[in-house]
Amino acid sequence: MVKLTYIAADGGRTEIQAEAGDNVMHAAIAHDVDGIVGECGGSMMCATCHCYVDDEWAARTGERHDGEDDMLECAASELRPTSRLSCQIKLTDDLDGLVIHLPEAQI
Amino acid sequence: MNTMELIEGHKRITPAPGIPVWDIDPYGEAILSDPLEYYAELRAKGPVVYIPRLSILALGQYATTHKVFSDHENFVSSRGVGLNDFAIEKPWRAPSIILEVDPPDHTRTRKVMSRALSPKMVKGLVDMFAATAEELVSSLLKKDSFDGVTELAETFPVAVFPRAVGMKDVDQRILVDYGACVFNAMGPDNRLRRWALERNAEIAPWIMAACARDRLTDDGLGAMIYDAADTGELDQEEAPMLVRSFLSAGVDTTVTGIGNALWCFSQHPEEWQRLRDDPSLVRPAVEEVLRFTSPVHTFGRTAGHDTEIAGFPVEEGTKIICVLGAANMDPEKWGDPEVFRIDRRPTGHMAFGAGIHGCVGQNVARAEMEAILHALSRKVARIEPAGEAVWRPNNAIHALDQLPLKLIPA
Fold first, then answer.
1. B380: which strand partners?
2. Which helix (H) or strand (E) is B11 found in, with range?
3. pLDDT class for B1, splitting at 50, 70, 90?
4. pLDDT for A1-52, tens place per residue?
5. Which residue of chain A has the CA closest to B350?
6. How far apart are CA B272 and CA B269, in angstroms?
7. What does the pLDDT look like over A48-57, one tens digit per residue?
8. A38 vs B: CB within 8 A
9. CB contact under 8 A, B114 and A66
10. C-alpha separations of B32 from B35, B323, B395 in Å
């Protein structure tokens, strides 16, 4: 299992345990974490699972995927260097403890 | 390859021991018209079921269906998403260069299409969608009754989508039929597929001609595809093929989504009242209509090499049908799937598929359905049946043939 912390725009923290192989969007939906919509279900066709990877973790979650930039441009909240589509961050054991910040709005 | 025994254009397989065998025709017209019992039995038999008369595996439980459908590495699309294996038999039409391909070819074409159909591009279309929906609903309110399929579900997408693409040629019957052909062709050699091949022979030349650059405006989604060919992102001959994909997948599907939405609300007046009371429910209502009716009910994959499903070995060349309609009705996933509840927010439903091949036009589809539901919710107190709804069997689409309706003004 991989420990994962979501920090909402208002500072509220939710800690969950997710399985390696899952992705950060799906793990949030499965644990009823508010602040991630994931409308397209992870096909990289919307920007409603936008998140900011914590600075400490940004290097470890890797680069944005091909096409992810185009979709992030459509995000409802401010784009930052650490912006990712959470459906594109696959959980691995190396990411145990990952901290994800959520934007104010997804739609 | 010559000695291999073929069935429905693919290799006949021997299922692994332990896989339940079910002698049924999932493409029988009675099932296609009214699939709920079939969905339930498919799920009940197990995560993977062998269907001997077609020599295919069928999946209906949500978890397995979602997993296999998203796993493009083991379960490929390049060998066709119907029952024919393109590695063995000549495809019925030149294969789609986005639907019926795998990475890395897919990645390149998908990127161009994603950009043309992104949320940002769709934002630029919603005013046109809203104005057209408003006008159409006003004209239908003047009638005593009407056919929800031909007079609304077909009329609206045919009015707005070719315009968004920038098509100069529009023919409602041909555009709707072309989609129906593409989806019927995914099934076995039955009456529906034979109709599709015959009808396709009549209309394919019209479709390809309509996709040519000089038959498109220079400011639509179609022009964006040709622009990508100009910059070298696509080859010149790929551009009309991608424009064709707009027409294969962008008309009959949304026609079905809108028709199914009208049917849902004609059957569930209490949910219509909730929608009218709280228009912010339009967006989740669209998702619930899609989950509840699964406009695309079945889609195939091919095992690209020896692999496994739910722990059972699966041999290379096996055709697998993912019954999206059954997954969308799986109580393990949804709790009370047979209840139509517009505030369910069914994230992860499979109506648009999943994974890298997930519907690239889903933002447009949602925007079209939202435009219609918004216009109706403002002007219409009740959507009442004015006769019996009749479903139209199709090998991959669950659509209405007739939907007599009466709109009661607000």
1. B409
2. strand B10-11
3. very low
4. 999 999 999 999 999 999 999 999 999 999 999 999 998 988 899 999 999 9
5. A41
6. 5
7. 999 999 999 9
8. yes
9. no
10. 6, 12, 7
The verdict on A70 touching B (C-beta cutoff 8 Å) is yes
Position B160 in a domain: yes
What average pLDDT does the segment B377-389 reach? 98
Q: Which residues of B touch A107 (CB under 8 A)?
A: 283
Mutate: best of A23, A25, A43, partner B, most B CBs <10 A:
A43
Q: What is the pLDDT of residues B114-129, one digit of tens each?
A: 999 999 899 999 999 9
Å between A63 CA and nearest CA of chain B: 17
Instruction: Provide the domain count of chain B.
Output: 1
Closest-CA residue of A relative to B333 is A30
CA distance A32 to chain B (A): 11
The answer to whether position B78 is within a domain reads yes
Check residue A67 and give its pLDDT: 83
Report the pLDDT value the prediction gives residue B291, as an integer from 0 to 100.
Answer: 98
B350 neighbourhood in chain A, CB within 8 Å: 41
Question: Cis peptide before B91, with omega less than 30 degrees from 0?
Answer: no
CB contact (8 A) between residue B118 and residue A74: yes
- The CATH class for the domain spanning A2-101 reads alpha beta
Whether B1 is in a domain gets the answer: no
Chains A & B: contacts with CB separation below 8 Å: 67
Q: Domain containing B65 — which CATH number? A: 1.10.630.10
User: In the prediction, which pLDDT does B98 show?
Assistant: 94
Task: Return the CA Rg of chain A.
Answer: 12
CB contact under 8 A, A71 and B114: yes
Give the structural domain span for B148.
6-409
Q: Which of A19, A44, A45 to mutate to test the interface with B (most CBs of B within 10 A)?
A: A45
- Assigned token pair, B393: 């069997």
Q: Which residues contact B124 (CB under 8 A, 6 or more apart)?
A: none
ipTM of the complex, rounded to two decimals: 0.83
In chain A, what are the domain boundaries?
2-101
DSSP letter string over B231-245?
TTSS-TTHHHHHHHH
Q: What percent of chain B has pLDDT over 90?
A: 98
In a domain? residue B289: yes
